Amino acid sequence: MIGIFDSGVGGLSVWREIYRLMPGESCLYLSDGAFCPYGPKDPAFIRERAAKISAYLIGRGAEIIVVACNTATAAAISLLREKFDIPFVGMEPAIKPAALHSKSGVVGVLATAGTFRGPLYLDTLARFAGDVRVVEQVGEGLVEAIEKGVFDSPEIDDLLHCHIDDMINAGADHIVLGCTHYPFLEKAIRRIAGPEIVIVNPAPAVAAQTMRVLSQRRKISCGIEESVFCSTGDITVLKMLVRREIPNVDNSIFTKVVI
Ligand code: DGL
Q1: Reported pTM
Q2: What CATH number is given for 2-91+204-256 in this structure?
Q3: How far is the CA of 222 from the centre of ligand 1 (A)?
Q4: Which CATH number fits domain 95-201: 3.40.190.10, 1.20.1250.20, 3.40.50.1860, 3.90.1030.10?
Q5: Residues that are catalytic
Q6: Rounded to an integer, what distance in angstroms lies between the CA atom of residue 3 and that of residue 180?
Q7: How many angstroms separate the alpha carbon of residue 208 from the centre of ligand 1?
Q8: For 65, phi and psi rounded to 5 degrees?
Q9: Average pLDDT per consecutive 10 residues, the chain (259 residues; last block may be shorter)
């Protein structure tokens, strides 16, 4: 079983790529809804949650864990790799492809405060963004809206204008989605940013990396998947987003858990 976790429903943007790539693999998805958002929280708290959740997922049979959260990857991936004896796949801010393909030499990055603070982001910047100007923006308010199931509304447009207008005005031709929640706003981002901007979502690359790591251990399953979706918070939006991908799934695969 592939364990996947995020502070909330955002990691489903990674799960759906894993599902599209390996439809026979069963996933155990955990949304830490009771403690969402992670973005503004102390890294030590996020590390504690990530360790508890990983132990829970392993206890339920996860043989690999995808940390489908940029903020948790930034705070906790090294600790998780030290503490547990299974492979962990984390999120990487997709600055490299954006910087490589940018023609204007300006790249926008939308992420949480925790991700911008993390060593992984700073290291990625230093390694790949030497030749471009990076305009960073914390996506204040976006995660909270998505957790409520709001993906397209005048309020979202207002928030996105606040977050994206400066990047556009600075000449950015790529916007990197540095939080797994944001791909669920892609339609609205496209509307605000216009048709020319390239929106970079790292989720397909993370799914491909998951497949690579898993296939080094065993054959990828071609059977029928039996995935399960849990949350420490409310499961309404979780259900709705999973059903966008697999419309007729049974209610019984969604449960509330205490971790
Ligand atoms: N989805 C998350 C990320 O990729 C976390 C958002 C949050 O909880 O603030 O960073």
Answers
A1: 0.97
A2: 3.40.50.1860
A3: 31
A4: 3.40.50.1860
A5: 69, 179
A6: 16
A7: 21
A8: -125, 130
A9: 98 98 97 97 97 98 98 97 98 93 97 93 93 96 97 95 96 98 97 95 98 97 95 97 95 97
Is 2-91+204-256's fold the same as 95-201's? yes
pLDDT of residue 77: 97
Instruction: Provide the 3-class DSSP secondary structure of residue 217.
Output: coil
**Span from the CA of 104 to the centroid of ligand 1 (angstroms):** 28
Residue for token pair 């504690």: 48
Position 178: which residue type? G
- Provide the pLDDT for residue 183: 98
- Domain boundaries of the chain, sorted by first residue: 2-91+204-256, 95-201
Q: Which amino acid is at 232?
A: T
- Give the residue ranges of DSSP H helices in the chain: 12-21, 43-59, 70-83, 95-101, 113-117, 119-128, 142-147, 154-169, 186-193, 203-215, 236-245
In this predicted structure, what is the pLDDT of residue 93?
85
Cβ-based neighbours of 202, under 8 Å, separated by 6 or more: 91, 92, 93, 94, 176, 177
Neighbours of 202 (CB within 10 A): 25
Atom of ligand 1 nearest to the CA of 180: 4
Alpha-carbon distance of 153 to 209, in angstroms, equals 34
**Which of 155, 257, 133, 83 has the alpha carbon at shortest distance from 163?**
155
Show the ligand 1 pocket: residues with CB < 6 angstroms: 6-8, 10, 36-39, 69-71, 112, 115, 143, 179-181
